[in-house]
Design a protein that fits this description.
The chain is mostly helical. It has one domain. Helices cover 65% and strands 0% of the residues. The chain is built from 9 helices and no strands. The mean pLDDT is 88.
């Protein structure tokens, strides 16, 4: 149940950015680094993404990082990913074809390990959501309102148009 060295290396680089931003050389490709962190976070294997998720919980607590243009442009997507992964995977049927659940069943052997791992994963997701909503409420609210608008605009898109059966 250990992360691959590659993901852990990426997470360690992210943690370095959070801990010692003054030591990052001028001209470093921070946008590329944040893009890499974001890409690994989206991996369907929770084992692969958990070190990066934990890294994001730390990075977002830094005002300098949180207010950077690169991170600001990813707030909506970070909220979306973390909210989607608050799912109780252990409640899904074992024969589900959900990609994340397939990885989870392969990556973790025992039920107690799976419950402990998923509890930590959900805690990190909730922490990211909490930090984003508390520290960037305008951006978070804009994302939530956009999602609600999309939902309501497409609520009946797969239904036939409404027709009145009775005339008054």
């Amino acid at each position: 149940m250990y992360a691959n060295y590659n993901e852990q290396l990426v997470a360690d680089l992210g943690n370095f950015i959070e801990q010692k931003p003054q030591e990052i050389p001028v001209g470093s490709d921070l946008a590329g680094m944040f893009a890499l962190l974001f890409e690994v976070l989206q991996h369907p294997s929770l084992i692969v993404s958990i070190p990066i998720l934990h890294c994001w919980t730390k990075l977002l607590r830094s005002r300098i990082v949180r207010e950077s243009d690169v991170v600001q442009s990813k707030i909506g997507r970070l909220l979306e990913i973390c909210c989607a992964r608050l799912v109780r995977y252990e409640a899904l049927p074992e024969d589900s074809e959900e990609t994340t659940l397939l990885f989870l069943n392969e990556d973790i052997d025992t039920i107690p390990e799976k419950h402990a791992f998923l509890g930590n994963y959900r805690r990190f997701c909730a922490e990211v959501v909490e930090v984003l909503v508390r520290r960037t409420p305008v951006e978070a609210m804009a994302h939530i309102l956009d999602q609600a608008t999309t939902l309501f605009q497409n609520l009946y898109s797969d239904q036939p148009p409404f027709t009145r059966k009775y005339q008054m």
